[in-house]
Every structure is written in structure tokens, then in C-alpha cells.
Amino acid sequence: MFRGTYTAVVTPFRDGNVDFPAFEKLIESQIAAGITGIVAVGTTAESPTLTPDEKHEIIERTIKIAKGRCQVIAGAGTNSTRDSIEAAKFAEKAGADGVLLVAPYYNKPSQEGLFRHFKAIAEATKLPVMLYNIPGRCGVDIGPETVVRLAECCRNIVSIKEASGSVDRVAELRRRLPEKFTILSGDDGLTLPFMAVGAVGVVSVASNLFPSELCSLVHASESGDFKSAEKLHRKMGAIFKDLFVEPNPVPVKTALAWRGMISFEVRLPLCEMTEANQARLRKTLEEFERSK
Q1: Given CB 3.0 to 4.6 Å as the disulfide criterion, which of 138, 160, 161, 254 pairs with 132?
Q2: Which residue in 89, 161, 231, 292 is the catalytic one?
Q3: Which residue in the list 89, 132, 180, 292 is annotated as catalytic?
């Protein structure tokens, strides 16, 4: 169900409000580049600082703009099972192709708590579910045994965005899960090594800026052309690194603003990059453009 290149799209702001004209242009540029899908109101979209009404409108507009030309996955994960259920139900009603469920953050549930959380949400919607494991941000890891249990008992839990940073984890998941259950990289810089051991795509931050390049990397990897994939990976390695030199999505929104695609605005507690890191990112982007 979920395989290929998905963009965890940013939320453009202007004067404190969501800039929907800029958002539409951003989505259109992604579709034109051949992206598989858009993840709307994920954490790269600054979902913790979006109001419920803003989240709903962003999801609805993304679906309307896409017009079936790419998949739309709605971010529905929170640290409240009840709120996540309501978000998943809204996404289904709005016509999304699936939901992305990040692990509950801060309250640090046990593996049994995680199992019951995701199971309750999956049972409340008919939409396909992509789990999102990112222990570095959430403070809790969705263990392989829990993923296996969920895949066995919930037919619509069909994929995981894996951002544990571990190639061994991806290899273990691939070994233990049904073949139809897909694994996607949650880190741009690990897309190639993850795909070498069984992942089938990426949910990308860098593709906000370079959608065609990420599509090419994933396509080459999936077709077994690892020589071409490695060449792209090495070429983009510094970009993958420097887009996280400060908290995501600050660097990628800074770069998009330099391109004139959005105005640079993030919501507190995020703020602008330091001048030193801006210079570093600009240099990396300029070197990449010269290498084309």
C-alpha cells in the first residue's frame, strides 16, 4: 500500500496564519516532480502548534489540491488515544488515503500501552495505518514485538515509518513481518541503507526542496540499481545532514524561503537559525547546485 517517496510537507505561515496560496504551490511542485504522496500535518508541518481547525483545513485542502494525483496521508498521531481516534475519523471522512500515527510522546507508555493505543485507533477507522517510530523525539520506542503483534491483529496497520536510526532494526522488522507490510525510512540520510535491507521508500524532509532527486534515489534503490542510488546518496549527503543542523523544520523552511517558495515563519517554541548555521546551509546548497 505505502511504498515510494512521500514528502512530510511543511506548513507555510504568513503573518501568523497558514499561507494556503504558498501551500498549494508547494503541493503542485511536489506532484509535478512525481512524488508518491504527501504527509499532511505531520511533525515537519509543526503539528503540535497547529490548532484543530487548522489541521482539518490543511488536510482537506491537501486532498482537494492532490485530486488523486498522489496519495495523501494525514498525520493523526498524538499522545492522547482519544484525540488520535478523532483525528483518524476526520481523515477518513475527508477522503485521505491513510493516516500516520506517531508514538505517544512524553507520557512514555509501556509496550502494552503502545499496543492498545494503536489497536484502538486502527479499530476506529477503515483507513490504512502507517506507524511512526521515532524514539529520539518521543522518548519511547515501538519495539519489534509490538509492531508484529499489531500487524497480526489489525489488518489495516500496514506500514511503519522507521526513524530509530538502526539498520539492524529494519532488517529485523523485515524478517519478522509479512511481506505486504511495508517499511519506510524516516531519515533521508538512511534511505539507501534501509532500502538495502528491506525498506521500500522514505517519508522525507529533504524532498520539500528536492522531490525529483529523492524520487530518483528511491526508484534506483527499489529497482536494484544501488550504484546509481549510492551516487545520489553521496551527492546529497551533506544536505541530508545540514537540514537537521537545527530543529526540523527550521532549516528546510529557511531554504524554501531562500527560493521564494514560502516566507520564513515558524511558530514558537521554534525560531530562526543562527547566522553561522544559515551560512553553513547556504554553502551546502550552493555546492550541491554547482554539482548538478
Answers
A1: 161
A2: 161
A3: 132
Residue 170 lies in a domain: yes
Contact (CB, 8 A) for 207 and 30: yes
- Three-state DSSP class for residue 159: strand
Count the domains in the chain: 1
The chain-wide mean pLDDT, for the chain, equals 97
- Angle at which helices 81-94 and 52-66 cross, to 10°: 30
Tell me 6's DSSP state: E
pTM: 0.97
The beta strands (E) that lie in 17-70 are given as 17-18, 37-40
pLDDT higher than threshold 90 for residue 290: no
In a domain, 254, yes or no: no
| Segment 52-108, tens digit of pLDDT | 999 999 999 999 999 999 999 999 999 999 999 999 999 999 999 999 999 999 999
**Annotated catalytic, 6?**
no
Q: Return the amino acid letter for 131.
A: L
41 part of a folded domain: yes
Q: Given the C-alpha cell 494525514, which residue does it identify?
A: 74
CA dihedral for 245, 183, 121, 65, sign (positive or negative): positive
**Residue 105 appears among annotated catalytic residues:** no
d(CA 96, CA 205): 20
